[in-house]
Amino acid sequence: MRGRKIVLWRHGQTAWNLERRFQGSTDIELTEEGLGQARRAARLLAALRPDAIIASDLKRTAATAAELASLTGLDVAHDEALRETYAGAWQGLTHEEIVERFGEQYAAWKRGEPVRRGGGELETEVADRAAPVVERNVDKLPDGGTLVVVSHGGTIRTTIGRLIGLAPHTWEALGGLSNCSWSVLGETMRGWRLLEHNAGSLPEPVLGDDD
Q: 30: burial class by Cβ within 10 Å (0-12, 13-18, 19+)?
């Protein structure tokens, strides 16, 4: 058993996050608060002594990843396959506008049905592009190594779902990530296991796992 870990870290706050606008693959920069969030989180994550950092190539993830890179001395490998879901006509709309204009499509998505939101990607297609990138980079780690993946809420959710073997219609059960929070997957003899979700502090050992 190689005992490796994957830390999936969401980017810091953007103006569109504050306005509750669906960003998707639109390239939006961090706010000053978002940059501060990234700096605070990076100080914690650096304590994990990661072996590698990969990130989406969008500005908000690149800037977030750069804060951890500056503390660890690691290079960041950017990959467009780690971008957020492309959501076509939904992008740039507020939550309320999406519900008003695409009510049935939104409801079907929330029911767990495969939906091309705004004419964009299916969630399974996002996992098809993102999860293999994560797996390829994990394979390069030494035993006990840690990979930090800096990405987006939807992409992280679908990647976690794929890696731990959940059926796609259940991926919504994985709650969202706050800005600059992260989830941790640990390697076991049975595959990947979700150890932490939407965390903002370093993982603690789980004592008495099943009691």
A: buried
Q: How many CB atoms lie within 10 A of CB 111?
A: 10
Contacts of residue 116, defined as CB under 8 A and 6 or more positions apart, other chains included, come to 88, 122
Against a cut of 0.90, is the pTM above it? yes
Can you say how many angstroms the Cα of residue 150 is from the centroid of all Cα atoms in its chain?
6
Is the Cβ–Cβ distance between 66 and 76 less than 8 Å?
Answer: yes
Cα 12 to Cα 135, 171, 186, 198, distances in angstroms: 24, 22, 24, 13
Where the chain has pLDDT below 50, the residues are: none
Residues forming the active site: 11, 84
Q: What's the pLDDT score for residue 72?
A: 98
Q: What is the per-residue DSSP string for 56-84?
A: -SSHHHHHHHHHHHHHH-PPEEE-GGGSP
pLDDT in tens, 120-164: 999 999 999 999 999 999 999 999 999 999 999 999 999 999 999
